[in-house]
C-alpha cells in the first residue's frame, strides 16, 4: 500500500499521487472489507487499520489475526510445542553466530513481537531450515518477507532481505484462510495484493492474487510464478500498483 518512506502518497519515483487514496475511498464505498496483512506487530497494525479504515489485520507474518478494531484477536501457533511461549533467545544467538556478518536482528523493529522473530541479512533459507532441524527445532522455519534498503547492512555487499522465524504452519496464507473461514467468506471471493515471496503464498488461499510490479525485483518470485495460475502482475510498483489492483476488484 505504501511507497518510499512508508508514504501512502508517494509513487516509486517519489512524486506525489492520490491514486492509492482514491482507490481506498472507492473500495470502502463499494463495501469491500480491507484486511491488512503484514509482518508488523499488533500495535502497529491496530493503528494502521484505524488510519486506513481496515476491517481487520494479520500481523507477524500470519501469527496474529485481529478484528473489531483490535479488541478481538487470535494467535496462531502452528507447530510450536505447548511448552514454548516464544522462540528461545539462546537459539537466536546461535543462529546469528552460524551466519557471521550475514544475519542480524532487524533492529529496532524486532522488539515487541509476540510470536515470530524478525531478522535481516542475506542467507540461504533451505540451508538455515536444515540447520534448525539439526538443532532440534524442526518446528521452526525461516520466511523471506522481501527486500530492504542496503543502508541497513552496508557491510553485506548485497541487498539485504527481511526474514521472519516462525513455527511451521504459521504464514500469511494460513492466516488468510483462518480469517476467511471465521468471516464465512468463500476463498474464491477474496483477493490478495502483495510484493514479496511470503505474500505470494496467499495465492493458494484466495481467488486471485495481485503482485505490484516491484515484486519482480525479488530474486525468488519470477521462478515461483509458474506454480500459480491465479496471479496478476500489475504494471506499476508500490502505491500505483496497489491502486490498480484494488480497482480490478471493484464493481464495474
- What helical percentage do the residues reach? 25-40%
Give the H and E element order: HEHEEEHEEHEEHEHEHEH
How would a textbook summarize the main sheet? 4 strands, mixed
What's the number of structural domains?
2
Query: How do the strands of the widest beta sheet line up side by side?
Result: 1-2-3-4
Count all strands and give the number: 11
Strand content: 15-25%
CATH topology of the largest domain: Rossmann fold
Mean pLDDT: 96
Terminal Cα separation, in Å? Answer: 22 Å
Number of helices: 8
General shape: globular
> What CATH architecture of the largest domain would you give?
3-Layer(aba) Sandwich
What is the CATH homology-level superfamily of the largest domain? HAD superfamily/HAD-like
Text of the CATH class of the largest domain? Alpha Beta
Radius of gyration: 18 Å
Which structural class matches the secondary elements?
A: alpha/beta
Low-confidence stretches: none
Draw up the topology in text.
Elements: H1 19-29, E1 35-37, H2 42-52, E2 56-59, E3 64-67, E4 72-75, H3 89-97, E5 103-105, E6 117-121, H4 125-134, E7 140-147, E8 161-167, H5 172-183, E9 191-194, H6 197-200, E10 208-211, H7 221-224, E11 231-233, H8 238-249
Parallel strand pairs: 1-2, 9-10, 10-11
Antiparallel strand pairs: 2-3, 3-4, 5-6, 6-8, 7-8
Helix pairs in contact: 1-8
